[in-house]
Design a protein that fits this description.
CATH architecture of the largest domain in chain A: Sandwich
Number of domains of chain A: 2
Oligomer: homodimer
Shape of chain A: elongated
CATH class of the largest domain in chain A: Mainly Beta
CATH topology of the largest domain in chain A: Jelly Rolls
Structural class of chain A: alpha+beta
Number of helices of chain A: 9
CATH superfamily of the largest domain in chain A: Jelly Rolls
Mean pLDDT of chain A: 85
Number of strands of chain A: 9
Chain lengths: ~230, ~230
DNA sequence: TTTAAAATGTATATTTTTTAACATTCTTAA
DNA sequence: TTAAGAATGTTAAAAAATATACATTTTAAA
């Protein structure tokens, strides 16, 4: 499943100096999960931080009818739940394992002790938290202000930046729609229009971006209210 | 103007021990702005942190047509722009002064020096950043998942928690609509329905919540997908 | 190679939301 | 007390998005 937050934010562990990362691993418990297994539930209040070691963690909110909204895929090195340590808030997401997954789990008390001795930890946490709210703010703004076509262009552009190949994105249209919070039909209409503008090409399970610069220009001209000037 | 983020998040300066707050004030430049004056523009890239001393700062995004979306009012003690210090991101918002306003401005270099010597700073920054993204995530989820009526109920409930008087909110419907990202007409329709359910009472420039517990119950039953269990 | 499943493409009816326009109510300052 | 402005209330038409349904294309497995 796709994700805006994950795709743009750096992994927590990657921001740590190797020796600090080692201490984090040392002080935490490695827990293994099988595909689909629950790692945490929305509403849990036991504070602690979780870091993906291998596999992936799918964060979302499961509705009463079983539907899931706003899915986020967290990969190796990425953390979640850290806000429970610094605030008194309950967990916002249901998180399940995607495939065989290993998670470093650390309780709040252990983490706090490490945190007090390793100033590098706070930098890494701050950077991820600040980038996350930055991205969320931009996304919120896009949802409120931009029509679906523009929103789609924007997410494609940001994904092409971070994905392996800037010219091709492998993803289902239904997943993209999910992430943008719109119906597949609406998304398809938007994508069609972008394809007519020659900004993208639609394929089976993939979207090609033959000239990323063209897309970037278009996004800059159509999606930025007071364009992010230099 | 109303704001979800501001209403729920603690002020940065309030999270600092008095002696650290004093050092922050000491190391920054106090700048005065008159009503409506620009404090920063979207796209600015000079890194630094700003803290409101008196008055208020209005953060929003000004569209090409002059319209403003997602307005946020920051009051005394609240900070903005700190993410520019820890990431390489340009500023996301246009910020203007509301009335006579004083802002503590600190450059990135100065702040970083202080940051390295005062571990308490990182805790305060982390807490505000984490709370912010928590609130943003919940808001994003609400926008995607909930109809307007439910969204309105949710914001009213959260505001009644934090406002001075839990039984009365003084706000224009147009402001509320703005914050929720819907038209005034749609919001009015939603509020009417909540009023019919006897959850709220509508007045001129105010919304009364005669029995907050009733509203909370309703929100818990209608707005929480997998209810935030205990 | 055939078949089933997955994914995309498309049309239409329905619902939701917005825009625009205007009436009404409330507040405040002359 | 009255007039002007501010805010809310209401309606109808237009636009946007969704749901439903089904056709087509692509992939991969039997």
């Amino acid at each position: 499943m796709l994700d805006l937050v994950q795709l743009n934010a750096p992994a927590f562990m990657d921001l740590l100096p190797p020796e600090v990362a080692k201490k984090v691993r040392r002080d935490s418990t490695l827990v293994k999960y099988t595909d689909g297994q629950f790692i945490q539930s929305r509403g849990d209040s036991k504070p602690g931080i979780s870091i993906v070691r291998s596999g992936a963690a799918n964060a979302g909110i499961i509705g009463m009818d079983g539907s899931v909204s706003m899915t986020t895929l967290l990969g190796p090195g990425q953390s979640f739940g850290e806000f429970t340590i610094f605030t008194e808030l309950p967990r916002t997401h249901d998180v399940t394992a995607v495939g065989e997954t290993e998670i470093y789990q650390m309780t709040a008390t252990r983490f706090t002790r490490l945190y007090d001795n390793e100033p590098q930890l706070s930098r890494a946490l701050l950077k991820t938290a600040l980038m996350r709210s930055h991205i969320l703010l931009e996304m919120l703004d896009a949802i409120r202000r931009l029509p679906i076509r523009e929103r789609a262009a924007r997410i494609l552009q940001s994904m092409s930046h971070t994905a392996g190949n800037p010219n091709k994105l492998e993803c289902r249209q239904s997943e993209l729609a999910y992430t943008l919070g719109v119906s597949r039909i609406s998304l398809n209409r938007g994508l069609k229009q972008l394809a007519e503008l020659k900004l993208i090409e639609l394929g089976y399970g993939e979207i090609r971006i033959p000239r990323p610069a063209l897309l970037s220009d278009w996004v800059a001209n159509h999606c930025n209210p007071a364009p992010l000037a230099s």
